[in-house]
């Protein structure tokens, strides 16, 4: 397992690609800026070095229209579950996640996958088994790892835009950087200068909000609660009910977009409430939970891992509530109750 970018890692990666006949690239469910940048970045590199290789990009989730401005986004296959579409792939490249459960509702299928696997990630979560692994939690974005692995010597304009998508997205336009991550400024400076890119103009190309996503934001604001559990810092939470979600015929992509906007704009901003979460239903019957926290408040990654729901970063994490029986649909209110009950029985870890 590699913990830092190195020439040796890239050489082994290239060898695995060279030996493969059919390749699938994927990233965690619910596409975000960094995961989209990761899959498009790796795909661009492979098509440059191995143009004849049969390579597909497959996501578990819905297509998000705002990413259509990026090169090759139209080639991504969005499906209910990527494990149902692996076909005869003999190399699976998994990006921006190191746990099978982040990519599929059927992680057992990935555990039984007969081909070889590659993982490139930057989360601190426990790592499942892969043929080749590069996980560097010190990197603020997975896209920057992709850049340092594959593009330091040569990068084209469209590839610069892809890498910047991930860096700006996962750093909150540099707002989340820590003192040990200042090298990202050098990377961004190099890319911005080489691409002749103005950040505000660049962001405006893909930062538009769909009307239905904005309707969800309004509902999230309406349902916002500020509360406290003994032994835990005060927090903010909100939700949309499954009935409201299904009546409005919203998609998972619209919910994901709205949740991201709500968390970026409102969560962690109320004085005295330095962390919080959003619970929302999904079309497959599960419910998603997304959490954010400020420095010195709750370690939300630790919380998700201990609840065995998911993982992520110390200050930005997420997970999934799954039904107890096939065909059931998880209730949002039950998920919130489970979170509160767990908090009442466990101690907060602050970081």
TrEMBL record:
Q: Which residues form the DHHA1 domain?
A: 277-324
Which domain of life does the protein's organism represent? Bacteria
Give the stretches traversing the membrane: none
- InterPro entries membership: DDH_dom (IPR001667), DHH_sf (IPR038763), DHHA1_dom (IPR003156), Oligoribo/pAp-PDE_c-di-AMP_PDE (IPR051319)
Start and end residues of each DDH domain: 22-167
Q: Report a single Gene Ontology molecular function.
A: nucleic acid binding
Please give the name of this protein: DDH domain-containing protein
Which organism is this entry from?
A: Candidatus Amesbacteria bacterium RIFCSPHIGHO2_12_FULL_48_14
Its ancestry begins with: Bacteria, Candidatus Amesiibacteriota
């Amino acid at each position: 397992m590699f913990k830092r970018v190195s020439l040796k890692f890239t050489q082994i990666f290239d060898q695995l690609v060279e030996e493969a006949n059919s390749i699938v690239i994927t990233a965690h469910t619910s596409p975000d800026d960094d995961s989209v940048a990761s899959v498009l970045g790796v795909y661009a590199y492979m098509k440059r070095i191995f143009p004849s290789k049969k390579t597909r990009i497959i996501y578990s989730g819905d297509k998000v229209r705002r990413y259509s401005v990026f090169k090759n986004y139209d080639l991504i296959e969005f499906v209910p579950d990527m494990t149902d579409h692996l076909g005869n792939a003999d190399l699976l490249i998994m990006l921006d996640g190191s746990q099978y459960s982040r990519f599929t509702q059927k992680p057992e299928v990935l555990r039984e996958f007969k081909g070889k696997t590659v993982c490139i990630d930057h989360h601190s979560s426990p790592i499942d088994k892969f043929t080749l692994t590069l996980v560097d939690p010190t990197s603020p974005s997975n896209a920057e790892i992709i850049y340092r692995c594959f593009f330091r010597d040569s990068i084209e304009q469209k590839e610069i835009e892809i890498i910047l998508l991930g860096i700006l997205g996962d750093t909150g336009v540099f707002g989340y950087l820590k003192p040990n991550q200042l090298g990202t400024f050098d990377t961004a400076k190099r890319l911005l200068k080489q691409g002749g890119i103005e950040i505000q103009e660049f962001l405006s190309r893909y930062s538009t909000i769909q009307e239905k996503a904005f309707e969800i934001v309004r509902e999230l604001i309406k349902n916002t609660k500020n509360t406290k559990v003994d032994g835990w810092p005060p927090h903010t939470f909100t939700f949309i009910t499954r009935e409201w979600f299904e009546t409005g015929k919203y998609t998972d992509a619209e919910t994901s977009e709205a949740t991201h906007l709500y968390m970026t704009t409102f969560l962690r901003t109320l004085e005295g409430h330095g962390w919080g979460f959003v619970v929302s239903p999904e079309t497959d019957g599960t419910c998603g939970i997304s959490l954010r926290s400020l420095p010195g408040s709750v370690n939300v990654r630790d919380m998700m891992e201990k609840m065995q729901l998911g993982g992520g970063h110390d200050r930005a994490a997420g997970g999934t509530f799954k039904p107890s029986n096939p065909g059931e649909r998880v209730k949002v209110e039950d998920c919130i109750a489970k979170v509160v009950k767990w908090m009442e029985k466990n101690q907060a870890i602050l970081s």
